[in-house]
Amino acid sequence: MFITDAVTKAQKRVGIASEQPPLPAKSILQIWTNAVSDSPSHPAFTCLGQTLSYGEIDQLSRRVASYFQKRLNLKTGDRIAIQLPNLIQYPIVVIAAMKLGLVVVNTNPMYTVRELVHQFNDSGVKVVVALDQFYSTLAEALPQTSIEHVIVTRPIDLLPSPKQETLAILMRLLGKRPAIKENSTIAFKDLLTVGTSYTPYSSSLNDICALQYTGGTTGASKGVKLTQTSLLSNIAQALEVISVGEDSLKHSTAIAPLPLYHIYAYSLCFGMLPAIRGHSILIPDPRNIPLFVKAIRKFKFDIFCGLNSLFVALLQDKDFKRLDFSGLKMTLSGGMALMTSVAEDWQKVTGCVVSEGYGMTESSPVISMNPSGFEKIGTAGIPISGTEIKVIDEQGVEQPVGGVGELCIKGAQVMAGYWKQPEQTAEVIIDEWLHTGDIVTVDEEGYITIVDRLKDMIIVSGFNVYPNELEQALTMHPQVAQCAAIGIPDSKAGEVVKMFVVKADSSLTESTVVEYCKANMAGYKVPKLVEFRAELPMTNVGKVLRKDLKAEELARS
Predict the structure, then answer these.
(1) CB 212 within 8 A of CB 361
(2) Is 73 part of any domain?
(3) What is the DSSP string of 383-426?
């Protein structure tokens, strides 16, 4: 049986089209402005106990857009980095950027100096908006970049005055905020002082609206060019699937703990939810489970977005289990493999089946989903509308249903390419087919199961970690001769990093390796385990055989 036939039957069975659905608007901004026009008083975002409506968020974003244009002289196509956790300031800045046609460069606040310098220089960022808590790392990176303006915000900047003053005093007493040179930065509050007038830009479907950085097999991360077309197409595709088997999801309240700098949450909160006039409950620190539960307990939420490691942590919290789940219609999972036991426990506690999906940054991001009422736990679901797939072996031969090979996809949601990387773009997009690097099998009902990763990518709590990047960073240490990174299974995070190291100096210790990694890598990339070796397994041309290291780890377990 051909995979195409299985997929077509699956799509017909669940009630979605095979072809690409019509775009919901002419731009991402138009989705937003339509919501502002017909639902101005409906809640759009809630964070830190504060709720702002679509109209209120839009007014604030107008002020920010005016400042960007009049005071900073930003023009269409300029790149702006947003280095924030999930705060209400995030959507305000994103929407302001959309109004002017700026290209958003989403930046992980946990990045180290090395990672910030690479991303800012590669993308050509002119302005960065950062949280004060992360300013010291940013300040160290700035002299190595061409950034012209730094805007710093505090978590409390948009809260009502009495609450803001009380929390400001508390933060000073705790001493948790770094000292910031006022003359070298712009306070976020200043952005709101110049009125709401600006000259809007007229968008084209081919315009790049975001550069979303993702790791690469060559070590350095690459900017994925996401256009209006790719994002809008994926929003339309995903909306069609989530409407399967559900009553109207209009005005749904969604719990949004996943970071907005990740493409999954970015597309959800700035595309899908505004399209249904939804209400996003932003969680700045989902690792703090007690505060997380406290933040959502007063809401009767319809949609919950998460991933395996977060579900595990929540299910271990007794207060979470006491929440009101009577309105929960849909639980979306992506970013990492969902364990069957976790899915079963989630359903027992919440009464809601988890709908697992699969995607990648290069596909804006959704490729397949489990439609509501048609979930098959342990699979990544069926291809969404307008998405062709094929499975090929190492010789490029297409496999039938049940065959194993690399998943390739074709659809309007595929990226425009890697920023300034035509050669690497040509390596992954061949004859319009995006080669995902994931080994899969497709069953007779059209469901995709991820078998393995062709690339050696490690997924830690939904974040992509690329061994080459880690190895290049660690080998800069003078006491390290060689190293190799692999992912090993972890019940909570899905995978964690293990680093194999060959010493150049016998005095090198495990703690030295870990501390060096902490200084040069984001926290989730730091190895949890370090093993010293006299030598590493190599091919006859000197390439480290990570698969042999993984096989040894598997044999031990």
Answers:
(1) yes
(2) yes
(3) EPTT-EEEEE-TT-PBP-TT-EEEEEEESTTS-S-BTT-HHHHH
Instruction: Tell me the two tokens of residue 167.
Output: 């929390």
Q: Decide which of 538 and 59 is more confident.
A: 59
Of 177, 202, 227, which residue constitutes the final position of a domain?
202
How far lies 93's CA from each of 254, 512, 513, 546, in Å?
21, 39, 38, 42
CATH number at residue 113: 3.40.50.980
Domain that holds residue 47: 28-202
Return the SS3 of 523.
helix
Choose the final residue of a domain: 153, 174, 202: 202
Q: Any idea what the Cα angle at residue 219 is, between residues 215 and 225, rounded to 5°?
A: 40
The predicted-structure confidence for 39-89, as pLDDT tens digits, reads as follows 999 999 999 999 999 999 999 999 999 999 999 999 999 999 999 999 999
Q: Count how many Cα atoms sit within 13 Å of the Cα of residue 106 in the half-sphere of its side chain.
A: 24
Q: How far is CA 556 from CA 167, 220, 484, 552, in A?
A: 51, 32, 18, 6
Q: In Å, what is the CA distance from 124 to each residue of 118, 128, 144, 396?
A: 10, 11, 12, 37
Supply 449's token pair: 């199961």
For residues 222 and 214, the answer to whether their CB atoms sit within 8 Å is yes
Q: Is residue 94 part of a domain?
A: yes
Compute and round to an integer the Cα radius of gyration of the chain.
23
Q: Is the pLDDT of residue 475 over 60?
A: yes
